[in-house]
User: What shape does this take?
Amino acid sequence: MLKLSACLPMMFGNLDFYDRFQAAKDAGLEYAEFWGWSGLDLDKLKNTVDKAGIKIATACIDTVTPEVAGGFNKKRLLTRDSEAFDAFYKA
Assistant: This one.
C-alpha cells in the first residue's frame, strides 16, 4: 500500500530541521524523508524521530568526499550531463 511521507527539506521551512519531524507528525503523517545526512547530528536525529513517533521513509545519500560525490553525480538521473540520463531518455 502506498504511504505518504513528508519531504522535510521542502516542508515546514519556517522550522529548524529537527523540529520538522514533529510538525510532520502533527500534520498526520507517519513517515518523513530528507536529503543527505552528512552534517546531521545522528544521535539527535534518532532521538527527535523517536520522540515525534514518526518513521524515516528515505534519506538520500550524500558525501563530503569529492571523489565519491563525483562518481555518484555521474549516475543520478536528475542532470542532463549524467550517464544515467542518456541511458534512460535515449533508450
